């Protein structure tokens, strides 16, 4: 039995359910997925300040999760707090957009990224460049759909997405396209037949990469000396998680 | 009267007092500085996870500060949450290490960075590269002093710092050196006479840059469309700050 | 039943057997691996000219393989002809060093690479930089072991490898290390207990990434117009492979 | 009393007066500004060859200035000879475009640059990239206004500038915009109300940064060994300046 | 007497004759050029897989050439196998596109590249970036002409080329333009009068650079230790070439 | 008859004679070289300020040269004013260090640079990076020899140079090495037999590249609109050169 922990860094439980459903669709036979949701912050993070809050919320949600797990999928599309979780946990941790970009690199020379919400474009750009993927990123495009407009007129937002994808293919040389945005998960299945390049979804990509990392069974990276800081003002579970107490670093 | 708000993202009030003292030493005649301290997190942030927490703590501390201010100095040496604060406030915001690096660029072609605590070296490296300063960064060095060892044997840690600075000068071509780390603020005054290149301190640099930005009197950058997210689970002041309510975006 | 095709671009069948054994050790339950060997070229490629020959040999070997397969693992450590195979096949293709680097990026911020044979260091450097991984590559080290010296005195070459790994960790900030070189596959299992960072092997990494890509079930990237070139002087199977005849682009 | 020396590297005294007026508008209470003009070269430098001449003219003008000063503002928008002045003087030296870019980085994630005269666009591009600001530079735009056309129809050139600024904001993601070109100084005050991002002017930015650097009171960088070259054919003051005679390196 | 060996990595002998004629037009007085053609592969390489084959074909063609020569011009526009030939031969080796780019850098600050066949654009892009010329490459454009359409309506393809060149000049800031593609060699002579920037042809550029390298008379680079690999399955001449036997490394 | 103009941007006529002698040694049969010397500035430029002066001196020297010429070799090792000369002249212009680096790229994958005088190392570093050659530059080394010490004990400085070259080969992976510094021209002939990689000299490289560019017979790049600046305070010939009067743009 493999146990994945999916952490939605947004507070929307509707989105968590959607992410979980997509994750379960792609999970292997013996994989059980638990989904948890940020207990505070924005329902759908799309600015820098609520993304900072989401960092705490992701750590907090993981810290409060009692049951053991073998890997963590950070299911907020800015991959918030991924590196911090990797530091405090002993199990593999992957962010959903990171996962999609990595899979894109394995099937293309250069990939593009499409997202809803123009406000988030620079945030995705920075995140992907910070991963060191400048040479592989062909371009980014935002469509003007919100979750609301998408639900109101899905055909319209799908047409806009398809146009943005084709723009990335024809004008930027994208050989694959990442569909970014937690609220859009699953859309790749509808759009894939309409475009000539592979579409990558973060949840599908992440579940599969994590199952693989669990099989690789690597030890965590222990390059740092001991920490001597004192924590205060945090919940008990958060304090334990950051203190590196064994109980909080699960797998078994 | 100019009012600076200094936010220590570490929870150590001793450090806050030290930072405030250094800031006041460099502040102009009509400048009044208020210093606030993170209400939760690590006493001295030196790892990724407590830095994520510090992001929330910085926003929280600013949100809970009732009095008006004209600029914010983020006084945690990883410049935690600087971009997020810039997004939600209408006043200038500068991080202490960012400030030191920027001043270093104005007096040298390439600069180095010295810090206590080897664990933090990659975090500084990432932060400075994310500022886009790869071409200007000559190198980084960590000494093995903690605040404790520094207080126990200041001459030893100063000798180690001086050796690290000279290493950066001779072997990396550093023409200026940034002394990073909130706990080390003020040390540049003791070390400057002993080395042949200018030493930059984040608090001195930041106070001066902020006073200048206040005088430049620029409007904030309004490039984004309206945000439609819903916040939950946050304190009232934090919610106001992230919601962009005018009361929270001070300057008068 | 999932069928992987492992292509050794070196002509050494001993190495092929070793690679196949390592691949089978990491393969999933329903995975069947066929291993084929370059029919011409160098027994162990370590220079640019024989690597150019290996490119043809990899295509040739794949072209002559009659049975269907679902993915291809290019098991020559310079990942020779990976992009070309991706272009002509409809199934996922991954190179062994590419796979190890990708897995390294998912468990570390920056990774190092260790290899036998100083002559090949610049070739690995170029290959990894061409993948666009400059920001993630902490450093490279070569030890002076050949396969012969390794077999003659394995303890010596393991000690040298361990020293090189620790050099990458301590002096270059590597948080993970890729063990490169087809002839060294499997050594990561012996060395892992001796070092504080995860060690990545290309065969283990590649088998697992390919199984994941098969599950993702992405269509190939069709961004190019029709090709109008005429081929001559090649074997029938090679001509078919490059002509894009359906029979040669397998998966069923 | 703080004494700034403003050096116009163009030979146009009309421009010098304009630059001085703008500088005085932004200077602090106890700041006295002396403005000097290049004694030879182009009235408004806009090509590489006259920019080379302007380098000499800037050094020459500074060398011939007898009165002491505490900092130098290089008021030619290609920041000509800034690094050379920094080398031979003991006081802070800042270029006007460098100053504007630095201030832009403190208020935005990525900034754009607008300039009159298409011929100079590649020169600005090179200068800003040589500062190492590639990651922060969102784009550049030139309008086709000369000083003459601007004076003849200021509303037209302002409309063109505003359009170029909005193009940089909307299509390149610029969160701030630098108005480059000595002849355009002051225009930022008229255009600022018309655009949604902060506009940076080199003179305002430079005066303020220099006042700050004077307060920081850093020693010059002494990393080089003694120079042994012999100068000839230069004016006495220029020879003194380049020889490093104390009389020429002012501040007191 | 100087003897150049021109190697067409495409199998089209018509193209070889065209390349040889262009080379002879630019060769110096005492230069004798021998042209050889790939014995297998694509008539005009325009995809990754046939480019991989061309690598072998280039080495094979050179290996089978019995007469001595003083330098090699790799006359396939993706410069296939250039680095490998440099490794095994003792004489200068230059690729035609590399040569054109290098000459472009000597007459411009940034250059563009025009090519027939949209399919090859990413291949040129990668090749030129791999040369490290990112900073000098202003842009790339493909026209939709094939050799066939060019022969059928040369005026049309010339008009398309001219439009693409002007696009690179006006919109990308190209100060010179490389005409890429072996089949287009010589066209620069017809187009040069119609455009305001220098046009570079790979054959003209390469012949001239090679004559210069012969005069420089540099020793080859011997930085590697001895190779110990065993070759098999190759023709006798190829085996000799890769084994570094003196008979195969000509000049005399 | 081909006429090269060699411009020494240093004022030392002894160096000019040495440069001319080296140039003549490498020039082709029908090449006549005229050598001119900067009329003002440093005898051997090794700092930023005298390099700025040298820019004017190079333009001045060329402007005052009455006889026609077909190409210009800028024989000061920081390649001072090369781009400016290219802009105002109609004939090919190459800098000596640029020439050596370009030739190095044609015979190696990565090259190193050795120079006398530690003070100049950052200036060479900047110049070569500004050429966009970061990916090809393996490293730089300075020896502590001045022209004086070299003349006093040539064997010592040659031993130091050889050691620096071997350091670049062994520790930085340099496959070729540029010997930089006008005063060192010709030394490559003595050192070449002692090292295993090709050594590049700027004068030899430049003469040969220029002869090649003359044969390529490219038109100058005319991408700019008309200049409208007014010049003053310059000598008549300098004014003519910068005004673009045909008499000053020679070749015939």
Automatic annotation (TrEMBL), chains A, B, C, D, E, F:
UniProt cross-references to Gene3D superfamilies, sorted A to Z: 3.40.50.12500
Taxonomy, superkingdom: Bacteria
Molecular function as annotated in GO: amino-acid racemase activity
Coiled-coil regions listed in the entry: none
UniProt record similarity statement: Belongs to the HyuE racemase family.
Name recorded for this polypeptide: Hydantoin racemase
Organism whose genome encodes this protein: Vreelandella titanicae
């Amino acid at each position: 039995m493999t146990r994945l922990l999916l952490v939605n860094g947004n507070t929307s439980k509707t989105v968590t359910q959607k992410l979980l459903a997509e994750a379960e669709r792609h999970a292997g036979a013996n994989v059980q997925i638990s989904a948890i949701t940020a207990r505070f912050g924005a329902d759908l993070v799309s600015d820098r300040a609520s993304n900072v809050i989401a960092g705490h919320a992701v750590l907090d949600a993981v810290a409060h999760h009692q049951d053991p797990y073998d890997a963590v999928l950070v299911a907020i599309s800015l991959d918030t707090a991924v590196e911090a979780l990797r530091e405090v946990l002993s199990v593999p941790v992957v962010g959903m957009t990171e996962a999609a970009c990595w899979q894109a690199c394995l099937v293309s020379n250069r990939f593009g990224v499409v997202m809803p919400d123009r406000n988030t474009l620079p945030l995705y750009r920075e995140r992907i460049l910070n991963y060191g993927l400048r040479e592989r990123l062909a371009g980014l495009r935002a469509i003007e759909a919100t979750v609301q407009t998408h639900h109101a007129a899905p055909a319209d937002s799908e047409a806009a997405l398809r146009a943005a994808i084709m723009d990335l293919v024809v004008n930027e040389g994208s050989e694959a396209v990442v569909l970014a945005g937690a609220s859009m998960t699953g859309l790749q299945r509808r759009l894939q037949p309409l475009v000539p390049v592979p579409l990558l979804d973060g949840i599908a990509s992440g579940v599969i990469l994590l199952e693989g990392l669990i099989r690789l069974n690597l030890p965590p990276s222990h390059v740092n000396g001991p920490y001597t800081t004192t924590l205060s003002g945090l919940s008990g579970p958060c304090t334990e998680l950051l203190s590196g107490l064994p109980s909080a670093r699960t797998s078994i």
